[in-house]
């Protein structure tokens, strides 16, 4: 008899799990709350040739599982190399200086003295010798903070090189990240190629959801184990029985769906960082692409702007200009529920103060306020040791970026693992 599996969530984790389960001969129902699949790789379309990636903005050469999956489903052609976020300038105590984010820029940077530079390159060589390059988490460094893990790099390199390159993409302060997380990313960020996705970051995932016949606009309100060893999935007041369920959603969201008896303790220990950003675009010429990282930051941590077809977080048509302002995690939390207009006005006023080339919001043709309550897992010291001690049990399994790494590749690998666990159990 064909075994039935429900996968809750059509982000990269759930869709990968579902695809690998279908390959193994299971009957799989993918249930997605939003009208479209993709999760935090969501793209908003604003007309011909104009889209904004509101969540993930790039894939990378060090994402082997994601790239292999995109190959298999015929979506790899969408990828083209792009410059990584982190280029641009640092606004340090009112002074604008180029971000030292490549060997050439570091060597020429006025922010580090010759000794700082030497120390940085020696520390990087050591990191390369001791840290694997496949985003693997080295549990030996899990208990320490990022600051401990970076002790050998020296204060100047830590503050001027690592901090701007990490606090942008991870939305969290270096102080709160685990040493293991920072080590794994430092290793790959310095050598990776980054990819833009034609048609939007969610395009490959929407194609995969179509292939799998995913059901969108379906909110799962509860999941509970049944006496016969299966699980009941509740939707709109009715329940469906499955042999197994994969919850491919952020841990705090999964916790809400389970009864206290079925809820593993780890779910309440995993936190996520919120993130708020504002995108606007207008018809007309604008400056070439540039970005500013603000230190110390308060309401706005990065301001980026540009014009022309490529280089945006998504794509704008020719003869359009765009700008994006991102709030840091500490101010994103309170902005999640504040009235939209107030949030927009505050963020944009600050962005224009930081970079006067940002156009006024009332002259924008497109304004997109983006609010993620669960942007990325909050990977603090001790995080992976807790995960390591957690063993998934039937009939409810978990997938999601919180189980591996806070990125698309982490989500894809978690989906592959969940599929293996389910098939190992139900065989
Ligand atoms: C602003 C931002 C920028 C990012 N930048 C990058 C980047 O450049 N590169 C990168 O690799 N990663 C990036 N990430 C992280 C990346 O997007 C995530 O790690 C990845 O999308 C996680 O995939 P997932 O499948 O685990 O979860 P999600 O993508 O969140 O998917 C979970 C799905 O479950 C659905 N769901 C939730 N509850 C229910 C329910 N009750 N019933 C049914 N469905 C439900 C949700 O609607 C969602 O579609 C970024 C994230 C954000 C927010």
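^ structure tokens above, recovered residues below v
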């Amino acid at each position: 008899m064909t075994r039935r599996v429900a996968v809750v969530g059509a982000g990269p984790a759930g869709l990968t799990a579902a695809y690998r389960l279908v390959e193994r001969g299971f009957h799989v129902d993918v249930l997605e709350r939003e009208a479209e699949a993709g999760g935090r790789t969501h793209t908003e379309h604003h007309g011909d040739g104009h889209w904004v990636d509101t969540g993930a903005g790039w894939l990378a050469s060090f994402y082997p599982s994601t790239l292999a999956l995109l190959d298999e489903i015929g979506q790899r052609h969408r990828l083209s190399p792009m410059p990584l976020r982190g280029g641009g300038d640092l606004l340090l105590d009112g002074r604008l200086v180029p971000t030292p984010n490549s060997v050439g820029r570091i060597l020429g940077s006025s922010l580090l003295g010759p000794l700082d530079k030497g120390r940085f390159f020696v520390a990087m060589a050591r990191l390369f010798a001791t840290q694997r390059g496949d985003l693997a988490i080295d549990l030996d460094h899990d208990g320490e903070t990022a600051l401990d893990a970076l002790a050998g790099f020296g204060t100047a390199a830590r503050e001027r090189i690592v901090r701007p390159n990490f606090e942008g993409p991870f939305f969290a302060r270096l102080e709160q990240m685990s040493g293991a997380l920072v080590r794994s990313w430092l290793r790959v960020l310095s050598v990776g190629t980054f990819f833009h996705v034609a048609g939007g970051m969610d395009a490959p995932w929407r194609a995969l959801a179509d292939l799998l016949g995913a059901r969108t606009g379906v909110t799962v309100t509860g999941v509970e184990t049944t006496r016969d060893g299966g699980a009941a999935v509740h939707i709109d007041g009715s329940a469906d029985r499955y042999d197994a369920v994969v919850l491919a959603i952020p841990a705090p969201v999964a916790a809400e769906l389970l009864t206290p008896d079925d809820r593993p303790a780890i779910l309440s220990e995993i936190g996520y960082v919120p993130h708020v950003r504002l995108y606007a675009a207008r018809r007309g010429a604008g400056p070439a692409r540039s970005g500013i990282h603000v230190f110390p930051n308060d309401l706005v941590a990065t301001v980026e702007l540009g014009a022309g077809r490529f280089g945006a977080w998504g794509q704008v048509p020719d003869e359009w200009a765009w700008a994006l302002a991102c709030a840091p995690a500490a101010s994103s939390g309170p902005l999640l529920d504040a009235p939209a207009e107030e949030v927009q006005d505050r963020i944009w006023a600050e962005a224009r103060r930081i970079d006067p080339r940002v156009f006024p919001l009332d002259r924008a043709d497109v304004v997109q306020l983006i609010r993620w309550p669960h942007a990325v897992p909050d990977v603090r010291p001790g995080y992976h040791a807790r995960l390591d001690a957690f063993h998934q049990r039937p009939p409810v399994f978990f997938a999601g970026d919180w189980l591996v790494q806070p990125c698309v590749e982490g989500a894809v690998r978690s989906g592959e693992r969940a599929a293996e666990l389910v098939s190992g159990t139900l065989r």
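Residues 4-43+201-271+380-426 form a domain with the FAD/NAD(P)-binding domain fold (CATH 3.50.50.60).
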